[in-house]
Amino acid sequence: MNPKLVSPTFLAQLSPEEFGRFLRYLRLKQGKRIRDIARVADLDPGYLSYLETGKRDFKRVRVPNLYRLLAAYGLPETYIHALLEAWSKQLIQPPRPQRETVEVARLDETPEEAVPLNPYRLPIVEGGAGSPAWEDTQDYEYVLLPNMRGKEPLFGVRITGDSMEPVLYEGDLAIVWAGGPIYNKAIVAIGIPSNGIVVKHLYRNPRYPQEPPLMVSANFTKYPPEPLPEGAKVWGPVVAVVRSLHHGLTKHEALRKPPEYLSESL
Fold first, then answer.
1. How confident is the model at residue 107 (pLDDT cuts 50, 70, 90)?
2. How distant, in Å, are the alpha carbons of 97, 105, 111, 119, 176 from that of 108?
């Protein structure tokens, strides 16, 4: 398969497994091993193996790494740029209209209060796991957000557990402004050694007005507040939330409902 004869738009429609096989074909055609590509792209050979077998999605690779990686496989810069542009267009295409049984709104009208959304490619970390530094993540996702100009860099924290309910639920994506201003009692992302990145309230202890130590607390009262751990890094405030719903409910609500409730027709 010659990449010059393959449309970037066509390639952008391939699944991770298909795209991985395409790049493996290019590598073998050049007589190269994975370690050869890894050395040129400055990436781990094991990570490349995951990409070629479709266990990791190329769309989630950081853009600078992705450019080096695709160039190492022999794709020209203009072709790489066209491929990334095709991927971005896929994410902002509106869903196909489906047949409705009840008309609840006119689909051809935009509400006056609607806020335009823009695609942002963000690093995503799992809350309470992995490295305390968000720059270490290899996982990237496209997220539709309002205009975030002046609030960059951004990264996302996937919420785990119930400690921030009812503000944040498990599965929600908290969007964090790295280096943004921190206000008392704000919800922030904190990197904690051996505990990854967590999302909590941050405030000053009022019992020590002269030199108030920083405290972190959950939103759920069953979790008592604690001093900011030694060596912790406050990355920045949460500036947006992408809610995860299950059958129209938050995951916590869905788990509390019996199956017959979820399957009950209106």
1. very low
2. 11, 9, 10, 22, 33
Return the closest-CA partner of residue 203 out of 218, 216, 189, 222.
Answer: 216
Count H helices, E strands: the chain?
8, 11
Confidence of residue 188 (pLDDT cuts 50, 70, 90): very high
- Determine the pLDDT at residue 99: 45
Compute, in degrees rounded to 10, the torsion defined by CA atoms 219, 221, 227, 230: -60
Per-residue pLDDT tens over the stretch 49-60? 888 888 877 777
Answer yes or no: is pLDDT of 176 > 90. Answer: yes
At a CB cut-off of 8 Å and minimum separation 6, what does 189 contact?
134, 155, 157, 174, 176, 197, 198, 199, 234, 235, 236, 238
CB-CB contact of 134 with 197 (8 Å):
yes
- What CA–CA distance (Å, rounded) separates 112 from 144? 19
Q: How far apart are CA 177 and CA 179, in angstroms?
A: 6
26-42 confidence digits (pLDDT tens): 888 889 998 898 888 88
pTM above 0.70, yes or no: no
Residue 194's CB is within 10 A of a number of other CB atoms, namely 7
Tell me 134's DSSP state.
Answer: G
Handedness of CA 5, 7, 12, 14 (dihedral sign): negative
- Token pair, residue 20, equals 């991985």
Cβ atoms < 10 Å from Cβ of 101: 4
Domains and CATH numbers, the chain: 3-91 (1.10.260.40), 118-255 (2.10.109.10)
- Cis check for the bond before 166: say yes or no (omega within 30 of 0): yes
